[in-house]
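Researcher: Here's my situation. A collaborator sent me these components and asked whether they could plausibly form a single complex. I don't have experimental data yet, so a predicted model of the whole assembly would be a useful starting point for our discussion.
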Amino acid sequence: MDEQRIWKMCRLALFEQEEGKKELTIASYYRRDYVGLGLLSNFVQVTVVYLLILAAVVIMKLDYLMNNFDKLDYVTIAAAMIAGYLLLIGLYSVLVFTLRRLKYLRARKKVRDYYIKLNELYEERTGDALHRQQASSEV
Amino acid sequence: MEVLLKARQSIKDFFSRYDLYLIPALKFLLAFFVFMLINRNYGYMDSLNHVFVVVILALLCAVLPISAVVVIGFIMLILHCFAASMIIGLVSLAVIIILLVLILRFAEGNALAAVLTPFAFILNIPAVIPVALGILKGKSSVLAAISGVILYCYLDGLPSAVSYASRGEATAVEIVQRLIDRLINHEELILSIIVFTAVIIVVNIIRRSVTKYTYLIAVLSGAVLYLILRFACSAFLEKSPDLPKEIIGTLISAAVCLVIAFFLHCVDYKRTQLLQFEDEEYVYYVKAVPKMTVEDYFEDEYEGLEDELPGEENGQEREYADSDYSEYEE
């Protein structure tokens, strides 16, 4: 048994099964897909939340709205609602885009190191096997 | 000091040796404590408000990741609110969704603080949250603290809204208006958000500086800063703080945080890892034991087995060591 090789295998298994589990999942996506999925889920979440906030505002101002039903400037209200929505979705999209991108790059770097070490191990193993094959053929 | 250091070392050894059992046990205790507090303060659902149910849920949390405490805690809160009144349940659900989407999803791994904050306020030790987050986590934990404060302000208005709803005179709109109004106009909302944010940032900056007693200084300065800011903000907002209550609460919080910091040092070790992998010839089952305890570990676990090692026929057992772990391979 090659102790050095087993030590390397332990280190790689530790990354694969414990420390780098999350990173391996993230790196299994393409960057565009990972960021795009985050933005899509962010769009749905923020839209739902905005509707909830809007409902809360309407309920809070219900008395005023009922009393001034015919005097309200609906165009301005609609414009304010759309502007608020665009602001919220824009802000959170930028945030999600930046964070996801950073997360992906970090995960990718760690996974790249992992694969380099894995490859080294594989090459060592293949080299050993070839060496053994050559030795046996010479004998 | 020597006694303390020895105690710390023995606790550290104990933790690294039995962490496979201790971590689930600690998670169980934490979950039990949180769920009991939820039931005690907002226990509107009779079937959920029972020690037996709490024990089962806490046992479940013991084997699940720590975020399970947050998820189950939120679910319990929502169920209690639905049991009190359908409309209160819906509003609570909406508040928690808004918190999760707008703030908590960016506070990775710190969501537990948001669930614990309301209970820190109820136990009159709110300072424990920002100081503990400052020493344990990074500056991003500010988001969890803000969520916790908002959750506390919402939950604080819950009992009065429930009694208001149970009278049967109020309409659904009035109940919602009352709940939101209590949340927005809660006296703690702005004040606590400002104080918590400042304390977390300052404590975190001090904790990161390399000094001899960094944790002690961080906790004490955090507690002092908390008190000063609290009084300053109260004066600015023209509110009169309860002086003895605030001081005693902050002192207890500082003591709790010192205990946390002490234990943080104690359990600052690498966990025992169980790994499994294979090559062309063998399947390896590896137990990676932290190096500091490895001698004791082998003394106890493999006492009397020396003659049998290494086994050449069916498998081999060997010890390996690197800078962090000693790997025991079978």
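Model: Some features of this prediction you could bring to your collaborator: Residues 293-314 of chain B have pLDDT under 50 and may be disordered. The interface with chain A takes residues 94, 97-98, 101-102, 105-106, 173, 176-177, 180-181, 273, 275-277, 279, 282, 284, 286, 288, 316, 318, 320, 322, 325, 327, 329 of chain B (CB under 8 Å).
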